[in-house]
Amino acid sequence: MPKDTTITRRALLQCAAWSGAAAAIHPAAAAAAGADAPYPSRPVTWVIPFAPGGATGRLSVLICDRLTRRLGQAFVLDHRPGAGGNVATKSVAGAAPDGYTILATSTANVINASRESMPGPDSSGELVPVAGIARLPLLLLVNKELPVKTLAEFLAYARANPGKLSVGSAGPGTVQLLSAELFRTLGGISWSVVQYRGSGPALIDLASGHIHAMFDNTAAAVDLLRSGKVRALAVSTRDRAAAFPDIPPVADVLPAFETSGFYGVAVPHGTPQPIVELLNREINAALLDPEISKQFAEVGATPIPGDTGIYAATYRAEIMHWRKLVPQTSAKN
Questions:
Q1: pLDDT tens-digit map of 155-186
Q2: Distance between CA 77 and CA 275 in Å, rounded?
């Protein structure tokens, strides 16, 4: 995995500098180059590629609320699910490059970019990177009625009941599906995949018993997990998640297994650089906001601050990581 899951002292100091710079900028002074009105002078559409209830939406709410308060215009969430995030990605890539349509990127973007020519920040030239937001571990979740309480018990149960288990997917090309397929391949098990238009609807069906299991990001799963409606058997990262220290890594049983979710922000190619830089400063400042930091920590999210170049480099590293990992999954979607 790309080694950016912790915040270096240098990154924090740089982020603090951005925070101070952002605080000094009044919205009325943040005009785009050559624009007649300051940016933003009207509501901004923040496009989320999945149905409500997932990690992308949960993280976006926190950032958009702060941007709205800081910049004086509403940053409005617009869920556009479909095709594992590609519907939203293509729609934003084709939008006017004026800063008023923003894409919340996720691991699905880098997975798709690793497999085919899809719009992505700093890859196809149709989108440009703005800022990273967070990295999240995933949890292997099961319905609480499934008669297993450990990862070893789950594997034994799956092997004893080939093809009888159903696993939820947030859509083709998503980290949820690819994590499940990698687990299936390494674990030598078989199950049926049920496709959803985001992890939110899949989690609802998992809690109600319509499906047996799924991988999902900690931010999306935390409420159901802490309410006891689902059970977590393992975490997808090699190390235990600080927010869930009692949950062991999948790698303890399947040493080759490791995945995580990666989230950021992009805008259409051609968006004026002053707007890109303003959004980058404000998002980085948001990552230092004590309330946002607290809420990130509660759901196991690790902020990934940095300038646009750092985000683009991380994005490229993620593409290469998944380009090596995807063939191991035997995934058909």
A1: 999 999 999 999 999 888 889 999 999 999 99
A2: 19
